[in-house]
Write a structure and sequence with these properties.
The protein is an all-beta fold. It is 0% helix and 55% strand. The chain is built from no helices and eleven strands. The radius of gyration is 14 Å and the shape is globular.
């Protein structure tokens, strides 16, 4: 199975930056669509950004222009550079890996890392 471990969360002031990383083991990382989701207290988990095996990206409207997702297949990692952070970005951020090829239908999740944006 695929295991995902997030890191890089913490406390940052509004307007600041953080870089989240997700380390993957198991599976064939390069063929998965990977991404970041977040969940604030009392809210459902929502998509932040994804990147396909071919490098196509998708961002939530709320983070476009501020966040950048990238992947390094040689290191089996996916990163999320978060700039111009806002208090509403506060959430637990989860790494996700998914595979949809014919009958294959797999989804994997990390344990999450806390991001708090506050002055």
């Amino acid at each position: 199975q695929v295991q995902l471990v997030e890191s890089g969360g913490g406390l940052v002031q509004p307007g600041g930056s953080l870089r989240l990383s997700c380390a993957s083991s198991g599976g064939i990382f390069s063929i998965y669509t990977v991404g970041w989701y977040r969940q604030a207290p009392g809210k459902q988990r929502e998509l932040v950004a994804t990147i396909t095996s071919g490098g196509s990206t998708n961002y939530a409207d709320s983070v476009k222009g501020r966040f950048t997702i990238s992947r390094d297949n040689a290191k089996n990692t996916v990163n999320l550079q978060m700039n111009s952070l806002k208090p509403e970005d506060t959430a637990v951020y989860y790494c996700n890996a998914s595979l949809r090829i014919g009958p294959i239908h797999d989804d994997y999740w990390g344990q999450g890392t806390q991001v708090t944006v506050s002055s």
